[in-house]
Model the fold of this input.
Amino acid sequence: MSRSISLELIKNEIRNIPDFPTPGIQFKDITTVLKQADLFSFLVDTLAEIFQDKGITKIACIESRGFILGGALAGKIGAGFVPIRKPGKLPAETLRREYSLEYGTDAIEIHKDAIIPGDVVLLHDDLLATGGTASAAVALLKGLDPSKICLSFLCELDFLEGRKHLQEYEVSSLIHF
Amino acid sequence: MSRSISLELIKNEIRNIPDFPTPGIQFKDITTVLKQADLFSFLVDTLAEIFQDKGITKIACIESRGFILGGALAGKIGAGFVPIRKPGKLPAETLRREYSLEYGTDAIEIHKDAIIPGDVVLLHDDLLATGGTASAAVALLKGLDPSKICLSFLCELDFLEGRKHLQEYEVSSLIHF
Done:
């Protein structure tokens, strides 16, 4: 028996965890959605409908939750998969980009040979919050000179206005908080 | 123009990185394969052929490289996706399992509500080496009482004999070193 699935239903299935990982943060736990086969398939199909005709050659995904739907989407639309990872995880020559957190800085890396000129790259992550990580990831990608970059998120926290930092790009989020 | 793809070709495309992350380790870098759309699709299709008729309800994937093909496979065969993560990353109630490394110990966690009795679970990771992580992951899964567990790896380092620790289970690896 199959149920009627919508993004609204999926939004309601996302679990809110107060004060995780730090006090004051309302963490959006998507594991409650991902573990349900029909909801997971619906998300992959929905992303594929949006992106399958855009000529995307590679999906660059941010470690580690971005790997999940990003990997599934790459398989579905026939794109290559490129990981963007925490420092020290990628074994070959990398580009690195630091970015600010509320306290201190963090950094992400990409292999220098991950993207070639002419690639049309979709950057995917599970969540767009302040846009700090996404902006750093876009900067990394730009350093490798693709033809085009567009962005995909499962969830977007609209009140944090992360999208303001990404105005040059097409940004798609399936679920808004 | 499409080329003739085989697991042998893919094995040859995996990049060997000597002395990473520590001296003496020959790291198998699969990013050189994942970024090639046709090779990525071939791997997802090959995994799907093996597992699509086994009644798998959930694919439990080990952070973070296991998320990539595991996520793609879950989308392809219509299974739910369950992350097994490093300590402190999963926000709700978890089971935790420690395991030995060459020096010291590490641990992994799974959400207690990730698996329900009756689930048929495929555990997926990119690499089977000594089997320490895989054994710990199987122990976590067993603690949640699924009907059946089987295991899938992209690569297996045969000389480390990790499979010896998993003799009760069906273990499938696509590529052997």
